[in-house]
Specification:
The chain is of the alpha/beta class. Helices cover 27% and strands 27% of the residues. Helix 7 crosses helix 8. The longest helix has 14 residues. It is globular and about 65 Å long. The chain binds NADP nicotinamide-adenine-dinucleotide phosphate.
Length: 376
């Protein structure tokens, strides 16, 4: 490894901003009312020693493209609020080329094209699993070989950087709800990246996908991805049975067999009344993940959960929580992608110095349809 420095996309604290030398990339984005400074920096590159005890089972990769996820918002906002002169390298998904491997690594070689394997085994003390980095924009990274997985030749760098978290999570959720041909599955927040993966994966196996969105736009795109119907319902509606089209569908099909919901704090209470007896509700996340100055706890939340769980009990609904997935889930998703059964939706690819546009498109209020990827 000969490079001493590398590129990385970072959030700068207020006091660090005047020291940024790459002014052509420096941008300020208003994130939930808070100014966030971002820039492409040159930072020290990691040193890799294949024979060392530290790196024997590790792999040095060169990042080709990266993206951020919903979860990154809280890390970005807390990094931006720090008082000291500091920067925080962002990114949680990437695609990369293997540059060098440690002496004990058997399954990867220089030149192989990889993405993270985010296989998650739960919160077991001392066992590291899940997303391997929160700094995926670092141009050179060192990872254990089992936290990387090869991608098919047909997958380009940008698709690779948009793939691991959404695909691995959704393949796990589809497996856990037992969806198959003819299952009636409601997918909430249909335009979210997670739900776009869910719609394509479910329609690929012949399930009837009902997409629930709060947005008036993109209905045709959701239908083109395989949704059988798109319900546009305002987020303020407390019970989906209040929507005439949803109610009519529920009467026709006898309730949904499953619900995939990326935001349980928004949708759990609303969807339980439209689920069939013995059906499965699965969630992988919540809306309120980042704290905003002055934001207060939702006073009605406790009551919403009480009512929801009573409703679930009386209808024998299985409530399942899901965090990412297994290696097999990711392998199945990669196979489906390789055999053209899993389209990946990309909204925008940013390049050059356009890190401000990258952040704004990823987390701005305009509403993306698909992943935003930065390609080096
Ligand atoms: N635990 C895990 O393993 C895991 C893995 C992946 C994702 N997740 C979680 O899944 C969730 C979605 O992540 P993502 O990256 O897919 O998100 P995303 O793409 O940023 O989601 C954006 C979508 O959220 C909906 N939305 C926007 N404002 C909203 C509001 N105020 N209330 C409710 N919905 C709103 C909109 O959908 P519509 O326009 O269609 O309404 C919007 O298109 C997050 O909670 C994330 O942490 C968890």
């Amino acid at each position: 490894m000969t490079t001493d420095s590398m590129r990385a996309v970072a959030i700068l604290t207020e006091s660090a901003r005047p020291h940024c030398t790459n002014n052509s990339s420096l941008a300020t984005f208003n994130m939930h009312g808070q100014p966030v400074h971002i820039a492409m920096l040159r930072v020290p590159a990691p040193k890799f020693s294949p024979a060392s005890a530290e790196h024997r089972n590790k792999v040095l990769v060169r990042t080709r493209a990266f993206s951020c996820n919903y979860r990154d918002q809280s890390m970005i906002m807390s990094a931006a609020q720090k008082a000291k002169d500091a920067f925080y390298v962002i990114g949680s998904e990437f695609s990369a080329e293997v540059i060098a491997v440690g002496e004990d690594v058997q399954d990867l070689d220089p030149g192989h094209r990889v993405i993270p394997n985010c296989a998650y085994h739960g919160m077991i003390r001392g066992v590291q699993s899940g997303i391997p980095t929160n700094h995926a924009s670092a141009e050179f990274q060192i990872h254990t070989s089992n936290s990387l997985i090869r991608i098919p030749d047909s997958m380009d760098w940008t698709t690779g950087a948009a793939f691991p978290i959404g695909a691995q999570t959704v393949y796990s959720m589809v497996r856990k709800i037992g969806a198959g041909p003819g299952s009636n599955v409601l997918v909430t927040a249909a335009r979210s990246n997670t739900s776009l993966f869910a719609i394509t994966a479910l329609s690929g196996i012949g399930s009837n996908v009902y997409a629930l969105t709060s947005s008036q736009v993109d209905t045709d795109k959701l239908l083109n991805l395989g949704a059988k119907e798109v319900f546009i319902v305002e987020r303020s509606v407390p019970n989906l049975l209040m929507d005439p089209r949803v109610r009519e569908t529920v009467q026709q099909i006898g309730g949904f067999n499953a619900v995939i919901d990326p935001f349980f704090d928004v949708y759990l209470g609303k969807v339980l009344p439209v689920m069939a007896p013995d059906s499965r509700y699965i969630t992988c996340g919540l809306w309120e993940q980042y704290s905003m100055p002055g934001k207060e706890a939702d006073a009605i939340a406790g009551e919403m959960y009480r009512k929801a769980l009573v409703n679930a009990m009386f209808n024998n609904v299985h409530i399942i929580c899901n965090c990412i997935g297994t290696t097999k889930d990711l392998q199945r998703a990669l196979t489906d992608y390789g055999e053209a059964r899993l389209p990946v939706i990309i909204d925008t690819v940013c390049t050059g110095q356009n890190v401000g546009s990258f952040l704004e498109r990823t987390f701005g209020s305009h509403g993306h349809f698909g992943k935003i990827v930065f390609q080096y």
